[in-house]
Amino acid sequence: MERHIDKFLRYLEIERNASIHTIKNYTTDLHEFGIFLKDAPVESVDYLTIRRFLAHLKERNLTSRSTARKLSSLRSFFKFLVKDGYLKVNPTDAVASPKQEKTLPKFLSETDVVSLIEAPDEATVRGLRDRAMLETLYSTGMRISELVGLREDDIDFIGGTVKVYGKGKKERLLPIGDRALKAIRNYLRKRNAVSRAVFLNKNKKTLGARGFRKILDKYVRQASLKEHISPHTLRHSFATHLLNRGADLRSVQELLGHANLSTTQIYTHLTTEKLKSVYEKAHPRA
C-alpha cells in the first residue's frame, strides 16, 4: 500500500502540479485508509471494503463533508492505479458520496469589515503590516495562502493589479483597490527589511497562514465583533458584497479563482436571503 501511495503522491506533485495543501490532504486520507486495511493488499480492496471504511468513519462521528473528502481521495487514488495498469477495476465506482448539508458561508456586513480593517494601530510597523493585509484580503478576495505568498514583484502599483498563485499553482491576475495599494506602500516604506516577500513576521521572515490567523483573532476582539471570523470570512464578504452591489456571478467566479461556477453559486443564496429580508420588511402583505 505504502509504495502505491508514494507513487500516487509523486504523480500529483510532478504531473498534476498539485498544491502542497492538496498533497497533504491526500497523504492524510490515504495513510488513514492504509491503517484501516492493516496488512491486506491493495488489490484485495473491493466495494464492501470501501463501505466498511465509510462505516468506520461514521462511527468516529466525522462530518459528511470530511467523509466525502476522504472518499474523493480514494476515488482519485484507485483511478490512478487503474490508469497505471495495476488494477482492472476501481472499487469506489459503485460507492455513492454521502449527502452533504448545504451551509451558507458566513460573511461580515460592510460596516463590520470597515471596523476590522481600521482596527490596527498604524503608528507601528506591525500595525501598518496588519492594515495592509486586511485591506488586501478584502480588496481582492484572495485566499490566505495567496496573501502570505505575495512577492513585491507580483504587485503592479501603476496598473492596480496583483498576481497570485492559487490552487494547483494556477496563476491569475486580480484588480486591487487604491486603499489596499496605499496600505501596502505605507508598510513597505517603514518595514526596514530586504525581502521579496511582502508580509514578514517579527523575525523578518515570510509570515505564515497560522501567524495571520492569530493576528486576525486579535483584531476581531479589538473591533468587538461577536461572530467567529476566519481569514475565509473576508473572502466570503468580498464575494457577497460584490453580488449585493450588482456584480455578475461569472465575474465573481473569475475573481475568486473557482474552477466551476457551481462553487461560486453558493453566494447567490446569500443575496437571495437579503432580497427575502427586504421583501418581508417592505411588503405590506409579506
UniProtKB/TrEMBL annotation:
One GO biological process term: chromosome segregation
PROSITE patterns: CB, TYR_RECOMBINASE
GO CC terms, sorted: cytoplasm
Top-rank taxon, per record: Bacteria
Single annotated GO MF: tyrosine-based site-specific recombinase activity
Keywords noted in UniProt: Cell cycle, Cell division, Chromosome partition, Cytoplasm, DNA integration, DNA recombination, DNA-binding
Keyword ATP-binding part of the UniProt annotation: no
Ranges of residues in domain Core-binding (CB): 1-82
Cross-referenced NCBIfam families: PRK00283.1, recomb_XerA_Arch, recomb_XerC, recomb_XerD
Assembly: Forms a cyclic heterotetrameric complex composed of two molecules of XerC and two molecules of XerD.
Protein name: Tyrosine recombinase XerC
Species for this entry: Velamenicoccus archaeovorus
